[in-house]
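Record type: monomer structure entry
Structure origin: computed from sequence
Chain ID: A
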Amino acid sequence: MKKELLHFLRNDDGVSAIEYALLAGLIAVVIVVSVTRGGTELLALFTYVKDQVVLATS
């Protein structure tokens, strides 16, 4: 019984899968935040350019 318990506690087969899942989740969050922020800044840039073109043509 004690030998089986020690074997169970030392078994780390699933640890790699959990670490990879956490890493993939973190990468996904970083991508989503980057794309969202970049999209917002790009929209602001196009709005500024549009306003400047409208101002220059009037």
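Annotation 1: The first helix runs from residue 2 to 10.
Annotation 2: The helical segments are 2-10, 13-57.
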